[in-house]
Amino acid sequence: MENVFSEQLITLRQKKKLSQHALAQKIFVTRQSVSKWENGDAEPSIDKLISLAEILNVDLNHLLIGQQSTADLIMSINHLTKSFTQPVLNDVNLNIYGRDRIALLGSNGAGKSTLVKIMYNTIKADSGEIKRYINMRDDLNIMTQDDILISDLKLIEQIELSARINQVYAKTYIEQLLDQFRLRQVAHTYISKLSGGEKRRLSLVLSLMRPSKLLILDEPTVGMDLESIDLFWKHMDHVGGAVLTITHDFNQIDKYFSRVILLKDGQIKRDDRVSDIHAHNQTIEQWYRQFNRVLEAKGVES
Ligand SMILES: Nc1ncnc2c1ncn2[C@@H]1O[C@H](COP(=O)(O)OP(=O)(O)OP(=O)(O)O)[C@@H](O)[C@H]1O
Ligand SMILES: [Mg+2]
């Protein structure tokens, strides 16, 4: 096992931009242990192998024998670039797996919405490749940052229309959705007359009404009152499949997500497991502030 494993470990560690020291810290071993594994002088125990696979975000086969199982891979983004008047994305690489619950974080203007729009194909990248292993029509649900609603329909009509398109139409189900998202009182209000928060809740209902293998939400809770935000996160606990959410709701990131990604200067600068961050006694907000600051300081230096 040593040769392939050692090579894989070096490659995957470097891809994650982790030093031997940083990797060692994450799995609670000495830097010398990592060095020995990479030189083929020693092998990690099985529990350390499992931790390594988690941190490097690969399955064990990939780590041990260099073969990646694509069974669980639902999207693979490679060397993606996109410029408008200025470069926005510059060599973005990301794999999304079937059970990921990813929070995509970054400052305003970092390119988060641009990245997800490229993922669900409403804008084209300038270069790079996206491999999609799901059916984009049947297996993907999205909620965009701007509500895309038909303003001269009544709320109930929009829900019924989407339910029919998504083949989940049933009267009792629609009633249930109205109650669950506290929309019954405005069911017969024209969409053009809804408040911002009500429109947001309606957009959510539309994106959550059918099951999906990948759910992408772009700032779902913005403009919602506290009660609606609580309802939303409660609902999310029951959502299956992979979830990628752009959010600044740091109160919830610690509780709900398994993986956090930091987009900055056009690249994914961090891609960490929430459990690792917690194991280092950090909250996600502390982690975010630390790396945003570190990266900003580096930007000033260079
Ligand atoms: N269609 C467009 N034409 C020109 N510039 C654009 C377009 N869409 C986005 N941009 C620019 O690209 C950059 C990234 O925008 P994007 O909306 O992806 O950021 P974001 O990370 O989602 O920010 P926010 O947190 O404010 O939603 C911004 O500088 C924005 O002005
Ligand atoms: Mg955005």
Would you kindly provide a written description of the structure presented here, covering whatever features stand out?
The chain is an alpha/beta fold and 302 residues long. It has three domains: 64 residues, 434 Repressor (Amino-terminal Domain) (Orthogonal Bundle), CATH 1.10.260.40; 159 residues, P-loop containing nucleotide triphosphate hydrolases (Rossmann fold), CATH 3.40.50.300; 59 residues. It is built from 13 helices and nine strands. The strands form two sheets. A six-stranded mixed β-sheet has the order 5-6-7-3-8-9, with helices on both faces. A three-stranded antiparallel β-sheet has the order 2-1-4, with helices on one face. The site of magnesium ion (MG) has 4 residues, from helix 6. The site of magnesium ion has 4 residues, from helix 6. One of its GO terms (molecular function) is ATP hydrolysis activity. This is HTH cro/C1-type domain-containing protein. Keywords: ATP-binding, Nucleotide-binding, Transport. InterPro entries: AAA+_ATPase, ABC_transporter-like_ATP-bd, ABC_transporter-like_CS, ABC_transporter_ATP-binding, Cro/C1-type_HTH, Lambda_DNA-bd_dom_sf, P-loop_NTPase.
Can you lay out the helices and strands and say which pair or pack?
Layout: H1 2-15, H2 20-26, H3 31-39, H4 46-55, H5 60-65, E1 73-83, E2 87-97, E3 101-105, H6 112-119, E4 127-132, E5 140-143, H7 155-165, H8 171-180, H9 196-208, E6 214-218, H10 226-236, E7 242-246, H11 250-256, E8 259-264, E9 267-273, H12 274-279, H13 284-301
Helix pairs in contact: 2-3
This protein binds adenosine-5'-triphosphate and magnesium ion.
